[in-house]
Structures are given as C-alpha cells and as structure tokens.
C-alpha cells in the first residue's frame, strides 16, 4: 500500500532580508526542497501529525526571492531560510491573499516591522564595529604586539650591553690595566649602536607605549650621548684615556640588569633576585657613573681649549671668543642636577617595590 501524501504544519516569520520557515516533521532524511518560478516546493518522508508518511507542500511567494533555499535538519523539524531579492517588509508570505490552512506565524521568531528594523540596525552596527576592530586590531592583539615589540627591544639592548660588559671584563683579566687605554677603539661601535637605539625608550615614554616618565629617560639619553659622541667621539685625545673604560663599564653594569628585568615584565614574569638587582645596583653605579662622566668632561676641557674645537667668535661689534669649555663647565652643573632627578625617580621606584607597610600592633 502506497504512503498517503499529506501536508505538514509550516510556521513562518520574516526579516527585511530573509524568510524563515519551520516544517513540523521529525526524522526527516534527504528532503527535496527547491524554488522554481518563485514557488517553494517541499517533499519529504518523515513523522508528522499523521505518522510516518510522505509530506508535501508548495508556496508561491508574495515577491521575488533568490532560488537557493538553505535548510537545516533537526530531530524534530526542518528549518528553511530563503533570501529575499529586495530588502523590504512583506505584508504576507504568499501571493494568494488567503492563507493556506497548513501555514501559521512562527511566534517564537515573529517580530513586527519596527522591531525588525531595530534588529537590522543593531546587526549592521555590530558588523561595522567588527570591521572597524579588524582594521584597527583588537585590544588583545595590540597588547600582544606591544609586548612583543618591547620584549625584542629590551632583548637586543641586553645582548648589546652584555657583549660590552663581558668583553671588557675578559680583556681586563687578560691585559690588566693595559685594557683601560684602548677601550674606545674596541667597544665604541657597539656602544654607539646601543646608545643610539636607546632613543627608542624616550620615544616610547613620550607616545605612551610605556608608562615611564619622559624626563628621566630624556636626561639619561642626552647625557650619555653627549659624553659618547661629543667628549669621546670628536676628541681623539680622549679616546685613549682610562676614564673611557670606567664610563663604559658602569653604563653596561647598570643595563645588564635593567633590560632583562624589563624583558621578563613583558611576559609577566617576576624573578625576585633580578628585581632586587635592578633596583639596587643603581645605588652605587649611578653616582660612580656621574663621577666618571664628570672626570671625562674635566679632562676634555684643556683639549677643547687647545684645539679650539666648537669654539666661536661673536659677530661685530662684540667680537668675543666663546670657548666650548665654557659650556662644558655649565654642563658639569647640569650633570649633577640630572643625577639628582634620576636618583629621585629610581628611589621612588625602589620604595614602591620594596617599601613595607608598618603593621599596627594591637
């Protein structure tokens, strides 16, 4: 006996761009669903209101739709989505005014036109926000990129200053005091690289990539580069002096603890020994470094006076010769003021990391 062809219960809802149909059939397999000449054809074997049978229906839509329906089978029903050709609100589903007996509104998905418009606007706004985030990068992605960038910067600086520190140490143990006098010629290229790259720290602080204050970073950048490029770099007589060894060695001693501390901070690691060294080594190193820089400036003053380098004469009618040594004497004052600013900044950082709150005794 052939199975009787029956019509299933069909529920529908709409949005401006889509139609949703829910066919009440369970245990459906391989349904025949198609759209030809704007008519939806459905035929499937399944369990419906009349038991296991072949169920079939045809719906001619009110307006044009795209001929590619999308359906999804569940254990209890068949969900069909049909795209409208024109985004608009329909007053009914079918071309015929009288609603077919098997068709009813799907109140689980039903919205009136104003609610559907609000939903459409919300979806469009969500889509635009997603596109904007994709073009700008999500906050998590930007944070990861920033951490990766800072990690690599600190890693490169650590390698540079470690190379200087290790080479100077080895040379001192092998050559003794003789290594003092050719430090510049053996270490200058790497020191030039590291000190020029350190400008990145000041830029990072200025544009907000890091939370460090700009002034201490700028003072250290300008002070070290003045000593390196002007005092040592332009005066050949200074390049053979022992003070170069002490300046370079103290700079690198500070940095071989500072940069790995920042590296570990980028990956949210805290090594207590390294943290203690980072906030303690500066206590003797910064005053000694400032003293070594001051000695190099004082030793360079006679050389600049003798060579007249960077000196100039004021124009007529003054015609006074201004020696560069005059600016060096002013710089000595600025040097110790800068030391005060940096020590004050580092002391606050150390107290913030190691300062202990007093416990009240009851």
From TrEMBL:
The keyword Cell membrane belongs to this UniProt entry's keyword annotation: no
CC terms in the record's Gene Ontology section: endoplasmic reticulum membrane
Subcellular location: Endoplasmic reticulum membrane
GO biological process, one term: sphingolipid biosynthetic process
Name this protein carries in UniProt: Very-long-chain (3R)-3-hydroxyacyl-CoA dehydratase
Organism this protein belongs to: Camelus ferus
InterPro entries from the UniProt entry: CS_dom, HSP20-like_chaperone, Tyr_Pase-like_PTPLA
Primary role: Catalyzes the third of the four reactions of the long-chain fatty acids elongation cycle. This endoplasmic reticulum-bound enzymatic process, allows the addition of two carbons to the chain of long- and very long-chain fatty acids/VLCFAs per cycle. This enzyme catalyzes the dehydration of the 3-hydroxyacyl-CoA intermediate into trans-2,3-enoyl-CoA, within each cycle of fatty acid elongation. Thereby, it participates to the production of VLCFAs of different chain lengths that are involved in multiple biological processes as precursors of membrane lipids and lipid mediators.
Keywords of this entry: Coiled coil, Endoplasmic reticulum, Fatty acid biosynthesis, Fatty acid metabolism, Lipid biosynthesis, Lipid metabolism, Lyase, Membrane, Phosphoprotein, Transmembrane, Transmembrane helix
Membrane topology of this protein: Multi-pass membrane protein
Record EC number: 4.2.1.134
Primary gene name: HACD3
Lineage: Eukaryota, Metazoa, Chordata, Craniata, Vertebrata
Family: Belongs to the very long-chain fatty acids dehydratase HACD family.
Keyword Protease on entry: no
Gene3D superfamilies per record: 2.60.40.790
Gene Ontology MF, one: very-long-chain (3R)-3-hydroxyacyl-CoA dehydratase activity
Domain CS stretches: 5-94
Primary location class: endoplasmic reticulum
PROSITE patterns: CS
């Amino acid at each position: 006996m052939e199975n009787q062809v029956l019509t299933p219960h069909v529920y529908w809802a709409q949005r401006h761009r889509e139609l949703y149909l829910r066919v009440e059939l369970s245990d459906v397999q391989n349904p025949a669903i198609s759209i030809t000449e704007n008519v939806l054809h459905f035929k499937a074997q399944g369990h419906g209101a009349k038991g296991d049978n072949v169920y079939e229906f045809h719906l001619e839509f009110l307006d044009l739709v795209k001929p590619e329906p999308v359906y999804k089978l569940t254990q209890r029903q068949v969900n069909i989505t049909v795209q409208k050709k024109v985004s608009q609100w329909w007053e009914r589903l079918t071309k015929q005014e009288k609603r077919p007996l098997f068709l009813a509104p799907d109140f689980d998905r039903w919205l009136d036109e104003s609610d559907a418009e609000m939903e459409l606007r919300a979806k469009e706004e969500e889509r635009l926000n997603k596109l904007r985030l994709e073009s700008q990068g999500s906050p998590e992605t930007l944070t990861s990129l920033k951490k990766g960038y800072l990690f690599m910067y600190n890693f490169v600086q650590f390698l540079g200053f470690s190379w200087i520190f290790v080479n100077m140490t080895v040379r001192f143990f092998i050559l003794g005091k003789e290594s003092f006098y050719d430090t510049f010629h053996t270490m200058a290229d790497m020191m030039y690289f590291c000190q020029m790259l350190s400008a990145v720290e000041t830029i990072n602080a200025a544009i907000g990539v890091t939370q460090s204050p700009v002034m201490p970073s700028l003072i250290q950048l300008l002070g070290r580069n003045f000593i390196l490029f002007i005092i040592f770099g332009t005066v050949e007589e200074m390049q053979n002096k022992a003070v170069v060894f002490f300046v370079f060695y103290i700079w690198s001693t500070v940095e071989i603890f500072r940069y790995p501390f920042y590296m570990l901070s980028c990956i949210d690691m805290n090594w207590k020994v390294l943290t203690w060294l980072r906030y303690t080594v500066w206590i003797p190193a910064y005053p000694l470094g400032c003293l070594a820089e001051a000695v190099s400036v004082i030793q360079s003053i006679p050389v600049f006076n003798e060579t007249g380098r960077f000196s100039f004469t004021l124009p007529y009618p003054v015609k006074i010769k201004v020696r560069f040594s005059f600016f060096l004497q002013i710089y000595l004052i600025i040097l110790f003021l800068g030391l005060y600013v940096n020590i004050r900044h580092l002391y606050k950082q150390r107290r913030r990391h190691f300062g202990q709150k007093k416990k009240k005794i009851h």
